[in-house]
Amino acid sequence: MILEKARFELIDPPDYQELLKKIEYIGRVCYKSEDKIAEGSAERFIGNIVKRGHESVIEHGSITVKFICDRGVSHELVRHRIASYSQESTRYCNYSKDKYGNQISCIDIATGFEYNLEDETDRKKFLVWQEAMEYAEKKYFELLALGASPQEARSVLPNSLKTEVAATLDIRSWRNLLRLRTAKAAHPQFRELACALLEELSARYPVFFEDLAESEE
Fold first, then answer.
1. Are 60 and 29 a contacting pair, CB within 8 Å?
2. I want to staple 90 with a disulfide (CB 3.0 to 4.6 A). Which of 42, 109, 154, 197 is the partner?
3. CA 120 – CA 115 distance, rounded (Å)
4. What are the pLDDT digits (tens) for 102-121?
5. Where residue 160 falls among pLDDT bands split at 50, 70, 90?
6. Is the Cβ–Cβ distance between 193 and 204 less than 8 Å?
């Protein structure tokens, strides 16, 4: 069994300046103020739109992110709409093959839940979890050896199984997702990913996300 850390990757991220120009032009259609477009006007204009909650305008920009997470977190992710998702399929992926390292991969529970493995209780929880993952892997491979198809054998795979999900959301929807999933009440493993993603997006696209990042500080 391979243990992995949850993470994300931006896929073909849009250029910030081009995104600003596009959103400003579209937003100014509402007011017929295209003539006011000037050097440096986009960030001011979009910043005011975001402050006023006129967020339908920023739906015209989208960002694609690939999440590497466990299947439990992926089930929470795909509840967010409107979005487009493409996910690694356990119906067709046969984890006994060389391309998968002849093992299943699981997202390390100790990271997302901040286990201190020097602590006796946390260590015991981790070992019980690890034993359960290894048992599931063993039975998965036994089913495949008996001639079961991947879509049959997947029924014994755990929630902690690593999956990859490419998600495309418009900027307004990303703001909503990040507002919900960086909250302290969010699932710890999803919150870990969401906080890291918010930091990245705020750095790349400040006018669209920096207010959310500041509220987390």
1. no
2. 154
3. 10
4. 999 999 999 999 999 999 99
5. very high
6. no
Mean pLDDT of the chain: 95
Q: Residue 55 and residue 27: Cα distance in Å, rounded? A: 10
Sign of CA dihedral 113, 117, 121, 127: positive
Distance of CA 173 to the CA centre of its chain: 13
CATH of 7-86+162-216, one of 3.30.1360.170, 3.40.50.10540, 3.30.565.10, 3.40.50.150: 3.30.1360.170
The tens digit of pLDDT for each residue in 46-74 reads 999 999 988 999 999 999 999 999 999 99
Say whether 113 sits in a helix, a strand or coil. coil
Show me where the domains of the chain are located: 7-86+162-216
Beta bridge partners of 2: 105
CA 105 to chain centroid, in Å, comes to: 18
